[in-house]
Write a structure and sequence with these properties.
Blueprint: H1 2-32, H2 38-66, H3 68-72, H4 74-81, H5 85-100, E1 108-114, E2 117-123, H6 126-141, H7 145-162
Antiparallel strand pairs: 1-2
Transmembrane segments: 7-30, 50-72, 84-106, 126-145
Keywords: Membrane, Transmembrane, Transmembrane helix
């Protein structure tokens, strides 16, 4: 039973992380498109998903390796599972960083070569984008839904135990 729960949890984590990162990558790629013509559209539809799969897969692999202590060391795993809101807060901060990277005060000007010409292009802040990307990936990959559910169950049990039973006088 434990191995099944572990496998299902890992599959859930991998799926949610991959889907979320892939969508984020495609949004970034769509925001990077300057010209909408047939050739760029075909290239976008073929190559961007391929690059998205590769980049997302590499990111998940890196975050999985960095997070191995959470999965293999019982002390670290117990510490992580005892704080189920930590990955939720991490994902929220990571997504906020990805949005903040587009703030016009934080964007960067990069020089790119387009059709043989050097053109200046405004791009999201690289450091903030990469930090948000990896923080989101790490926290989603190490999000254990059962720990969050058990947190809510404990809170509900504590709050229901404080309520007086019908017909019983409250203690002073």
């Amino acid at each position: 039973m434990r191995k099944t729960a572990f496998a299902l949890s890992l599959l859930f984590q991998l799926f949610v992380t991959f889907a979320t990162l892939f969508v984020i990558y495609i949004v970034y790629a769509l925001l990077d498109v300057d010209e909408a013509d047939m050739i760029n559209g075909i290239g976008f539809m073929i190559f961007q998903p391929l690059f998205g799969f590769i980049l997302t897969g590499l990111t998940i692999l890196i975050c999985f390796i960095v997070g191995l202590p959470i999965r293999l060391k019982s002390k670290v795993r117990k510490w992580w599972l005892a704080r189920p809101l930590l990955p939720i807060i991490g994902v929220t901060i990571g997504l906020c960083l990805l949005v903040i990277a587009f703030n016009f005060n934080l964007t960067e000007i990069k020089q790119i070569v387009l059709n043989g010409e050097t053109v200046e292009k405004e791009v999201p802040n690289t450091a903030i984008s990469v930090t948000g990307w990896f923080l989101t990936a790490f926290c989603l990959l190490h999000f254990y839904p059962q720990s969050v559910l058990s947190l809510f169950r404990r809170r509900r049990e504590v709050s229901s135990s404080k309520l007086p039973v019908v017909g019983q006088k409250p203690s002073a």
